[in-house]
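Hi F.,

I've been meaning to write this up properly since the lab meeting, where we talked about keeping a consistent format for the predictions we share between groups. The idea is simple: the sequence comes first, exactly as it goes in, then the structure tokens exactly as they come out, then a line or two of notes. No screenshots and no reformatting. I'm using this chain as the first example so we have something concrete to point to.
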Amino acid sequence: MELIWMIVVAVVIVYLIVSTVLFLFPTIIHRDHGNKVGSLKISAHRGGAGEFIENTMPAFNHSAQLGVDMLEIDVQETKDSVIVISHDNDMYRSTGQKGLISDTLFNDLPPYSNHLFLQFDRVQCVSSQADYSFVKLDDLFEYHKEIVIHIDTKDGKPSLVNSVSELIVKHDRLKNTVWGNMSEAKNDLCYSVNPDITMFMSIRKVIFTYLMFYLGLIGFYPMKESVFDIPMPSSILEQFRDVLSGWQKILVHIAHFLMMNRLLFWHLRRRGIKVVVFVLNKEESFSTAEKYNVDGIMTDFPSRLIKYHNDKKENNASDVGETSQILGKVEE
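Output, unedited:
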């Protein structure tokens, strides 16, 4: 019996040592994802859906001119196999007309509605007098060659995934494209079609990452993806505080505590995996996210996020100047 306990204690000690070493130095057994893509600090969700009609070329052009680091988009496939940028296959929300993109020829797609409500802001509506058309992924790649583009393959059909991969290769975008799917099976399809394209994690992989972290097994857990996309639960309170019950607010706080973990984010960065939070639209949320040292923020309002960063830089510069003046006076 004593020998069994000695073996158990020895195994536990070895496990704790190995687990700690792999947590601190994960690239001992895991590949370093390095900087497969550039900065993802400021990402325009659906091209900046709070400032222009979502997923339209004016939205993409505006965000690019602002200097965002990444454009986040979703893609669908038309009846004649054209890859277009749209969050929904059902066209009713975006165009006011019934029908599916997958059942419609590209030239028959209707224009976007002149008024669209944001899905991540219950009261914000974006309006335009112009009639905007659906954008081909091929055209977006052609007009914005350098900026990082984050692609959700949505229904993830093999024909769509293959076409997207071909366009990425055609435009030489292996180093500045992130793609994937919320479904693990569809994410695996993306990887099998082209493992050289940077991937974001599926919902299942995100959940397993948290599970492995809290079980102390994260150092042993392999990850082929290079981007860790997650929501920030506290932002839900900003949008739905007036309709959530007391226990629902408590659950949100618990989720925020578990998900926004600096130690986990530090470990992921040690592997070269970037942490990006979505979709934050208010300065309070920007500030909260930065406290956790995330690598990037997705927003419907890129102008707000850029202004937030610029104001922060000016305030920091002002503080440094004031400190220098005080030190100068002390030396005198």
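Notes:
Residues 12 and 18 are 10 Å apart (CA to CA).
The radius of gyration is 23 Å.

If this format works for you, I'll send the rest the same way.

G.
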